Description:
Rossmann fold
Amino acid sequence: xxxxxxxxxxxxxxxxxxxxxxxxxxxxxxxxxxxYQSGWRFDQILCLARGGxxxxxxxxxxxxxxxxxxxxxxxxEAAGTIRGSLDIARYITITNGSxxxxxxxxxxxxxxxxxxxxxxxxxxxxxxAVIEIKSAVLWxxxxxxxxxxxxxxxxxxxxxxxxxxxxxxxxxPHQLAAWIEKGRAVSGTLEKx
Length: 193
């Protein structure tokens, strides 16, 4: 995926933060380093899907700890730009055992804080074997009612964060052939016939 395809020469300002794939992956690595340098050690990672899936995957690989996944959803209308009611899955997916010990809860951002706060409360109620929960996000918006334990960037103006994977929110399978060709043209990888 080309950086140009996502950003399309759009500039960051108080209302919009445009993130390329390269910036996104670099941010995940910087957040992982920040958590590591804090000295806090954890037994498992719980990522909030969908936004926290990539963070959870990378963190699980870097820290070599089991990954658990909890599906949540609040942004669903207008290609994911309008907040709806919060849906939290009833069950957590984990490959070995149950959620326990020290858990690092990861997501891409904390916006209103409702999701993070609700999930933390439910974890404490449903999983008595969890002895400590800390949260890590890439972006912490000022409008949030909760402060994450770790964050990479604090956003005082509460911009809309245009993440690179959001391009897929408005892409249907019937559009893939044209999308792939456009990406090749943009990146200059079209083979000459």
